[in-house]
Amino acid sequence: MLPPHALIAIALATTPSLPTNAAAVRDGFQRLQAAMDRDDRAEVERLAPTCLEAARASGDLSLLPEALLMRGEACMSLDQDDRAKGYLLNAMGLAQELDDRRVFANTLNDLGILIEHEGARFMAESYYRQAFAIARTLDDPALLDAVTYDLATSEAERGDYATSRTRLQDLVNRAMQRHDRLAATKAMVKLADVDHAMSQPSEAQETATTALAMAKEVSHLPSRQAAEQLLATLALERGDAGTAETRFKEALATAEASHDGWQLATAHLDLGSFYASRGAADLARGHLMAAERGFRQLGSSSLLEKSRTLLEQIDHGHSL
């Protein structure tokens, strides 16, 4: 990464003289954020480069850290982690130079996510904690929600469920107080996961049911699918195979509506695994083959291998 003063010089030198203004640029940021929130990949791909170009064209250097941040987050939403890291590091450098603490905290949090994808979980959590400490001092509820969610998720993954649950419940309460149903829905789904991990099936059932209703209300398909998958798992664990099958099918239908390759592949894997465990080889095979194709296209080696292993077991007549 170039030093911040060099980035500023390049930004100023390459700013084209296009007719734009700060208000128009910030409006573009909002539209891009809305597209990412609703997981509209096509709109994200269309808006992301335009927002950065507009920020450069504005001649307002203070817009560039956020523009680079948004470009990086857009790459993350499109599963382009390497490209995302480059934009985020540049955003961090400019934010530090310009003392933009909001963008600096955002980039810390996003880099934590990317580092966690690489397997450096403890380092990622340190990034989340730094971002959280800054976010608490700023008047930016959306930023505080985001860093709270990621820190709570990291804490749950290392087994600190009590702390994670408290953070997530606080997040839900804050979001509901300001009538942000989408943020509350995402946190409620994660809260249900934590209840499940804490071996509290009754609480997990209640929370997941609430989360599903909220996800339907705000039309957030990823949260809806996650709630349906958890409800299917809970049904399976209590021996209710009929309800489990219904919920897994609902999750698949939701994934198909989302047009998201990852969500669709995981839904096929879940339903294929369910049918395989019930000895329904023909039903399982179709879903597992769909999952295999999806994970091959996505480059997910571990889940690709899981799909192939289940297919081999079915072909050899092994009961799961």
Question: What can you tell me about this protein's structure?
Answer:
With 320 residues, the protein is mainly alpha-helical. Among the domains are: 1-99, no CATH class; 220-320, Tetratricopeptide repeat domain (Serine Threonine Protein Phosphatase 5, Tetratricopeptide repeat). Helices cover 82% and strands 0% of the residues. α11 packs antiparallel against α12. The protein is globular and about 65 Å long. Mean pLDDT is 90; it is low at 4-19.
CA-based shape: globular
Oligomer: single chain
How helix-rich are the residues, as a percent range? over 70%
Q: What count of helical segments does DSSP give? A: 16
Order of helices and strands: HHHHHHHHHHHHHHHH
- Bin the strand percentage: under 5%
What's the overall average pLDDT, rounded? Answer: 90
CATH class of one domain: Mainly Alpha
CA-CA gap between termini: 50 Å
Protein structure class: mainly alpha
The CATH topology of one domain comes to Serine Threonine Protein Phosphatase 5, Tetratricopeptide repeat
Query: Could you say what the CATH architecture of one domain is?
Result: Alpha Horseshoe
Cα radius of gyration in angstroms: 21 Å
- According to CATH, the homologous superfamily of one domain is Tetratricopeptide repeat domain
**Count of extended strands:** 0
Main sheet attributes: strand count, strand direction, barrel closure? none
Unreliable parts: 4-19
